[in-house]
Design brief:
Layout lengths: L5 E5 L12 H13 L4 E4 L11 H15 L5 E4 L5 H13 L4 E5 L8 H14 L4 E5 L1 H4 L5 H7 L5 E6 L4 H11 L4 E4 L5 H6 L4 E4 L6 H12 L3 H10 L1 H7 L6 H9 L16 H13 L5
Parallel strand pairs: 1-2, 1-8, 2-3, 3-4, 4-5, 5-6, 6-7, 7-8
Helix pairs in contact: 1-2, 2-3, 3-4, 6-7, 9-10, 11-13, 12-13
Length: about 290
Amino acid sequence: MSIFTGSAVALITPFNPDGSVNFEKLKELIDFHLAHKTDALVVCGTTGEASTLTDEDQVECIRVAAEHVNKRVPVIAGAGSNDTAHAVNLAKACENAGADGLLLVTPYYNKTTQRGLIHHYTTVANAVNIPIILYNVPGRTGMSIAPETCAELSKIPNIVAVKEASGDISEVAKVAKLCGPDFDIYSGNDDQTLPILSLGGKGVISVTANVIPDEMHDLCEAYFNHETEKARDLQINILGLCDALFCEVNPIPVKGAMNMLSFGVGECRLPLYEMSDDHKAFVKKELEKLGLIK
């Protein structure tokens, strides 16, 4: 039940000036990615500002994306929650809306134990028929999925992968060892894409791919084609942009970058607020270095 190989964009959610979802712009962004090698779309994840979307908006984003993509690439729905019952309902709604897979973040704020994680994910997995990617991002949620917990969850048939954004390469290596080659690992940190591929990773779920989708795809493809020097050069070349796109809380900088590139995606919803002038200059400088703007 592997969902994709390569680069999946953690897609931003475009908003109108009144803060409503701009569904026409969403389709334009999807067309951009389909034309620029993106291997899968993750819709309404962290970068898609799921935390400030209503369930209705979130499911409609998935429906619009799935219909517009029409199976050309996988559409993966962000559908996690810190309330298991809510996560079940959201996961089922996203499946019904046409999602090919689900990205489920760990419970946040109230958190849980590792035993609680197993019961949480098992409950959601048993409620749907599509494959699930676990999302380990302790910097956002305040808790990690232990490698041993990942191994236990990997025994559930439709839990097929983990997005690893812990930043701890040693922990990722343990996941690879305990879960084996049939359990997919995706980098959740753009600057660690190549190291995670070297541990058997299947690709990346990328914020940076919003801006440079071709390069993120090419990095993965080069590694899979045993062109390790090319993959290394691509990884090193994007490090400055990666730093810039995380100079403030994601997705503030990436949305700012997209607007600098004239995509017209609107602002973030509060409490996320526009970048400081210094950070705008930093992002602009890195875009200039890559020849994306003059």
